[in-house]
Design brief:
Helix content: 55-70%
Shape: globular
Radius of gyration: 18 Å
């Protein structure tokens, strides 16, 4: 029987062989990545794309431009993402953070230690661990694994049996995987894609690329 580390890397290989490089996170700038991470809370990515398209149409994807909008105008532009008043407030808070604490450039966070950058993001209203880690991993080149409901569901289905507390789950994964930025980015994207196709809340196992692992017929 394979060890947990071997299981995680086997899953990664199977998923990558099936889906390849998913080019995730799709964005033209680091700031756009962060905006997407905030908007994607409690909605589908397609809805986020519609909101970002609205912002791009009027060339508003910068902290200065967002802070220059009337609240109601911003809320209306991001309406497709749902919870638009709440998310408009969060975009304003985040944009002010970038201007006032990051010298106007989100890439300032790249220069900080991961723990420090993460702590600063988590102080912002509406930014939880998953959102903070998505920003750090995809926008700021920090090697930190993003945990979401798909990750917890998939790994516990293959027998990990880990606590579903975010930080504990993250620590378990990061202790087993190579500390590699590209692997972390690819792996998270692959988990999301496979969860949409197969590893749903009610699993559809026929044709799933990791079915043999999930059924505990481990690779020799």
């Amino acid at each position: 029987m394979l060890k947990n580390q071997e299981i995680l890397m086997a899953i990664y290989r199977y998923l990558f062989n099936r889906y390849g490089d998913l080019k995730w996170w799709p964005a033209e700038s680091a700031f756009e990545v962060a905006i997407g991470a905030i908007l994607t809370q409690n909605t589908s990515w397609r809805n986020v794309e519609r909101s970002i398209e609205n912002l791009k149409k009027f060339e508003l994807l910068s902290p200065e431009k967002i802070l220059g909008l009337d609240f109601s105008e911003l809320a209306n532009l991001i309406r497709p993402s749902g919870f638009y008043n709440q998310k408009a407030e969060r975009l304003i808070i985040f944009s002010r953070f970038i201007l006032e604490e990051c010298n106007g450039d989100i890439k300032y966070l790249n220069k900080l230690e991961t723990a420090d950058a993460r702590k600063r993001l988590l102080l912002l209203k509406g930014v939880g661990p998953e959102t903070a880690d998505s920003i750090l991993l995809y926008a700021c080149d920090h090697t930190i694994f993003v945990i979401d409901k798909y990750t917890m569901r998939m790994f516990n289905r293959v027998g990990m049996g880990w606590s579903e507390k975010y930080d504990i789950f993250q620590k378990n994964i990061m202790e087993l995987l190579p500390h590699d930025l590209n692997i972390y980015r690819h792996y998270h994207a692959l988990i999301v894609e496979n969860s949409k196709n197969y590893c749903r809340s009610k699993p559809f196992c026929e044709g799933c690329p990791i079915a043999k692992i999930c059924k505990k017929i481990y690779i020799k």
